[in-house]
Specification:
Length: about 250
């Protein structure tokens, strides 16, 4: 019993200070890096150059800046109100969405989503709302992350997410308007849906300033997404590897 409590305390302590590209970050931190991402293409007929391929292969630039309770990455920013062993609370902005572009449909754009995140022990809950009203939608995400240290310099983060999308999100990103329908692509009105995502992240610091990351993820989309005329598969594999220098 004592061993289980000690082990759980260690995991929680590590999780409270860890981030996707971080092992024991200081209050001031700057990381710059680059990598490559290979991801299954779930869409039909996307005209964006690199999204025409299957799988999608794209460069993955990275920068992360942290100053006390403020953290900034290319696609997100947050202010942390509390970070402790038991719980975290922050407000955040994400640039996200299932962007889609084809020549005879309106471009579905990523947009700014704002909201809050609460972590209790190993569980994290986020609620985000479209701040630009392009999709006029909300997202809720429930996650569990388990850190598993391997030796002194390597850690594996095991994560599972359930992501809930309202009907406005599905309709904007996966729907087809009557004016956009054609033979082989019927009009489609989306309803609320969810996806399940499982991820393993391998973090290794091999010198004082250099670290690497390997990320392997699998996502299963729900029926509302899978049945969209713009979608060709309901399962997505996502692999990313990169190297980062910490100043």
């Amino acid at each position: 019993m004592v061993f289980k409590i000690t082990l759980l305390t260690f995991f929680l302590s590590f999780f409270a200070s860890a981030s996707p590209f971080s092992i024991a970050e200081k209050s001031y931190n700057l990381k710059i890096g680059a990598g490559i991402r290979v991801k299954s293409n779930i869409r039909k007929d996307d005209t964006t150059v690199f999204k025409q391929n299957d799988p999608i292969i794209a460069p993955f630039p990275f920068i992360r800046f942290k100053l006390s309770r403020f953290e900034l990455e290319p696609d997100r920013a947050k202010i942390i109100f509390n970070r402790s062993l038991l719980w975290d609370l922050d407000i955040r902005v994400h640039y996200r969405g299932h962007e889609y572009n084809t020549f005879d449909m309106d471009h579905r754009h990523k947009t700014l989503f704002g909201g809050a995140a609460l972590r209790f022990l190993l569980f994290k809950f986020k609620i985000l709302k479209d701040l630009q009203n392009k999709s006029n939608s909300e997202i809720m995400i429930a996650s569990m992350v388990i850190p598993a240290p391997i030796g002194k310099h390597t850690t594996i983060l095991l994560q599972g997410d359930i992501e809930f999308w309202d009907s406005e999100y599905i309709d904007y990103y996966f729907g087809v308007k009557e004016s956009e329908s054609k033979p082989g692509r019927s009009a489609y009105v989306g309803k609320k849906d969810k996806s399940y995502r499982f991820q393993s992240t391998f973090l290794t610091r091999f010198s004082g300033s250099w670290m690497t990351r390997i990320n392997v993820a699998y996502r299963k989309y729900g029926e509302q997404v899978a049945n969209s005329p713009t979608v060709k598969r309901s399962r997505e594999l996502d692999f990313m590897t990169g190297i980062v220098y910490e100043f």
